Amino acid sequence: MPASRSRLSAIFFTVLVDLIGFGIIIPILPYYAQRLGAGGFGLGALMGVYSLMQFIATALLGRTSDRVGRRPILLATMVCNALGYLLFAAAHSYTVLFVARVVSGFAGGNISAAQAYIADITTPAERSRGMGVIGAAFGLGFIIGPAIGGLSAHYLGPAAPGLVAAALSLVNFVSAYAILPESLRMEHRTTRGTWDFSHITALSWPPGGSRRSPSPATRSRCRFGPASCSAGTSSSSAGSSPSSD
Question: What is the widest separation between alpha-carbon atoms in the chain?
């Protein structure tokens, strides 16, 4: 069945809030860091640690969502996002500011679970449109985030961007809790370890040495990262169809 418009909208808002939350602090981060005594290296560390934690968390959270389901990961990271932005708003030392960026970066890795959710609820024919929703949220978040950050800091004070981002994360949590059901059925969940990515190489070189071509549905999912790839392999092997509304 076609993917629910409300569920696609909730995933769109999830990714949008992630990217707004990332961009909303960009206009004031240099001033924040300078006020707390950070130099150029310290500022670079604040920018870089967010992306580093997101890189690590993308694989970790995507793999975990293959075991426990997408919904728990998405909801938990929304709360973590809110916590990270509250820490940012309340930071009175460089250490607290750095920890806030670590927490927010890790929570931002939920994009892999969002991609996997889209892969779960869409048919192969719909999947490009579903992933396009995530791409649109990326672009819109990068546009809206810095604008909200600059305006809120100018009119409401330096703590305002963090508070606004935290509020958006909590609104996202409430809407997702009400709208998003679990998309990954129990029989399709993996029992592989969190750091076991052998299924990716097995798509091309399975045990036995002969090359195997994955199904079109699996190839389509694997274009969007390890979490959606594993969602494709587990669903294909079980002969699954997207969850109905």
Answer: 65
9-18, 48-57, 88-97: range with lowest mean pLDDT: 9-18
Distances in Å between the alpha carbon of 34 and those of 23, 30, 41, 48, 98?
Answer: 18, 6, 11, 16, 13
Which residue type sits at 88? F
- Residue 220 has a pLDDT of 45
In degrees, rounded to 5, the angle at the alpha carbon of residue 223 between the alpha carbons of residues 222 and 227 is 45
Residue 163's Cβ-count burial label (10 Å; 0-12, 13-18, 19+) is middle
Residue type, 188: H
CA–CA dist 52, 175 (Å, integer): 28
pTM equals 0.73
Residue with token string 């934690």: 53
119: exposed, middle or buried (C-beta count within 10 Å: 0-12, 13-18, 19+)? buried
State the Cα angle at 241 between 190 and 198, rounded to 5°.
30
What are 182-235's pLDDT values in tens digits?
888 887 777 665 556 565 555 555 555 544 544 444 444 454 444 445 444 444
Other CB atoms within 10 Å distance of the CB of residue 3: 24
Set out the domains of the chain in order of their start, with CATH numbers. 5-179 (1.20.1250.20)
Enumerate residues 6+ apart whose C-beta is below 8 A from 245. 1, 4, 7
Report d(CA 193, CA 30) in Å as an integer. 40
